[in-house]
Amino acid sequence: MSEFDEPSDIEKAWIYWEKIRDSLTGLFEILSMSMDENNIFYQCAVDNLESLKETIIDLLKKDYNPIEIKNKLRDLEFGLKKSLFFEKDENQDEKKSVSR
């Protein structure tokens, strides 16, 4: 495969942005179907989705060192996994000890 067959970094970034945009749109559609637009939680969720979208656009505009980005993403991934799995278990353990 020649270097002309491979997508450029800009093309790859655009493909990733389209996937992210589609995911954000899907989340917005789910919110719209399941919640009333006047609901405060709906408004908060939409605000967070818009903020996330703008942050991602800002990140794509900047030229960051790929190694730095990979390290930050690993930190974020570990933090997310920790909050999803370990903190939930700790909270359940605390609830059990309080109820005893």
Structure description:
With 100 residues, the protein is an all-alpha fold. 82% of the residues lie in helices and 0% in strands. The chain has helices at residues 9-34, 40-61, 66-99.
Short characterization:
By secondary structure, the protein is mainly α. It is built from 3 helices and no strands.
Quick check: average pLDDT?
A: 78
General shape: globular
Helix content: over 70%
- State the secondary-structure class: mainly alpha
User: What is the element string, with H for helices and E for strands?
Assistant: HHH
Any descriptors?
single chain, mainly alpha, 2 domains
SSE layout:
Elements: H1 9-34, H2 40-61, H3 66-99
Helix pairs in contact: 1-2
